[in-house]
Design a protein that fits this description.
The chain is mainly alpha-helical and 496 residues long. The chain contains 21 helices and 2 strands.
Length: 496
């Protein structure tokens, strides 16, 4: 933290030092690599082999829903065909595609958290998300967790949430003379943002039926938010914008199935056949140990009400006076004044409730379901860090320079006399507050450590036992599997 003449600035508190950023990036990369090794080297040989083999066969002329049966939408299979256009016939060819989409998903989660909470909270939120995603996919006991829809869908689901949050900021401060045109421009931007949000939702629905919660959450929140303001016409316009984006994303896949002549069989498999899987058991976790990566985010959310009362009146004076509403570090303090942050939190709450309702209906308790089912909890947990940072940054550490400086920026004569004593007080108070922040970070890392400690030995053991030759033989066997089936009740593995 840099010490300024006027005391630590808000930017010093909200911008993590470069060594913290580098450490967080190293931890994220390590967690991703360990998680992917654990997934790929799993001794459970189920969905990823079928998905890879089906995609390879599609490149060589086989038709999905005719030559191969699957009770899921076609988007993942279509995406997985891209590596096989240039890479050899092996399951390893999917590694670059999966890692690319997952890393992009991490980036979008970071951008979401930075937009709402700022850089420090974004680092903590992204780190928790990466750990949860890789833990739940790697330690799934019903599948190997590699190249599954849940891993791919982190990107479009987080993208839909990010774009929807941006659409909430459709009303910006404008000069009175330009108020009407400014509002119209903002609403127009909001429409396009909602169309992009709908497109992300459409990509989700084109990949898996369990992506319905994000669609229901966005449309439901649009209707509720607009209706509470008695903006019924805008509720319809917003809903149509989202729906148009959904239709736009689904259109290429609908055309593909129509041209192939398989849309009837695909519709039956994705609806009737898939519905038969519901309510066999339940996807709800049995114990707290099943959601070990969520311990830290849940702890943050539980502590948020304790921090909020201290944070309520502590908004940066420089941000309040700024015509853009942005603080020194670029974090959007204007989201508080314009109600974007409360609206975003209510959206995440609605999304999580719908995810939980669906999770209860899913056919079995499988960890890979939790990758997406608990994503809203992780994305909302950054609110704690935002509240904590703002609390620690004030009152002594966050100052309005104009109160102590003249127009030139030099300290006023009346302030120079008290400067040594104030700097000493600021330094002591700053050390205390920085100690509190460091303790919160270390405590959070200690809570997150058990999940990583369980993930790492699993990855190492699976890597040592992995047989590349056997892996390739099984992949080739599935490629030759006539009338192969993924997810259907009458499906049989080769050799059974």
């Amino acid at each position: 933290m840099v010490t300024h003449v006027n005391g630590p600035t808000h930017a010093d508190w909200t911008r993590p030092p470069s060594w913290v950023v580098a450490s967080a990036l190293a931890a994220i990369v390590l967690t991703h690599v360990v998680g992917r090794i654990a997934c790929y080297c799993s001794d459970i040989r189920t969905d990823s082999y079928t998905s890879a083999a089906f995609s390879y066969r599609m490149v060589h002329g086989d038709v999905l829903y005719r030559d191969m049966s699957i009770d899921k939408p076609p988007a993942i299979m279509v995406v997985n065909t891209l590596p096989y256009l240039v890479l050899p016939a092996a399951r390893t060819s999917l590694i670059p595609m999966e890692s690319l989409l997952m890393v992009l998903g991490y980036v979008v989660i970071y951008r979401f958290a930075r937009t709402l909470y700022g850089p420090w909270p974004a680092l903590m939120t992204a780190s928790a998300a990466v750990l949860a995603i890789n833990y739940f996919s790697a330690l799934d006991f019903t599948g190997e967790g590699f190249a599954l829809a849940e891993s791919y869908l982190v990107l479009p689901q987080a993208g839909a949430a990010l774009l929807y949050v941006h659409s909430l900021g459709g009303t910006r401060q404008v000069a009175p003379a330009a108020e009407s045109s400014g509002v119209r421009d903002a609403e127009r931007r909001s429409r396009w943002t909602l169309i992009g949000c709908g497109a992300c939702i459409g990509i989700n629905l084109a990949a898996k039926q369990t992506a319905i919660p994000i669609a229901a959450a966005v449309l439901g929140h649009v209707v509720l938010r607009r209706s509470l303001r008695r903006q019924f016409r805008l509720a319809i316009v917003d809903g149509v914008s989202v729906s148009f984006g959904v239709a736009l994303a689904l259109l290429p896949f609908a055309l593909m199935l129509t041209i192939q002549g398989t849309w009837r069989q695909a519709w039956h498999d994705m609806t009737v056949q898939a519905a038969m899987m519901l309510e066999r058991e339940t996807g709800w976790p049995d114990t707290w140990r099943d959601v070990k990566p969520l311990w830290a985010p849940l702890m943050w959310l539980a502590l948020t009400p304790l921090v909020l009362p201290w944070r309520t009146a502590r908004v940066s004076p420089s941000a309040a006076a700024s015509p853009t509403g942005l603080d020194v570090d670029g974090a959007a303090d204007h989201t508080l004044r314009h109600g974007i942050l409360p609206a975003a939190m209510s959206f995440l709450l609605l999304w999580q409730i719908i995810e939980c309702i669906l999770l209860v209906q899913l056919p079995r308790r499988s960890y890979h379901y939790y990758v997406l089912s608990f994503l809203p909890i992780v994305m909302a947990s950054g609110y704690f860090w935002r509240a904590l940072i703002d609390t620690l940054a004030t009152p002594a550490g966050l100052r309005d320079p104009s109160a102590r400086s003249g127009a030139s920026g030099e300290p006023r004569a009346s302030a120079r006399a008290d400067l040594p004593a104030e700097l000493h007080a600021d330094s002591a108070a700053g050390c205390v507050r920085m100690t509190i922040l460091a303790a919160a970070v270390l405590w959070s890392l200690a809570v997150m450590r058990p999940a990583f400690n369980e993930l790492y030995p699993v990855a190492w053991t699976r890597l040592r036992q992995f047989d590349p030759a056997a892996d390739q033989r099984h992949f080739e066997q599935v490629v030759r599997w006539e009338n192969g089936s993924l997810g259907r009740n009458d499906g049989r593995w080769p050799g059974e």
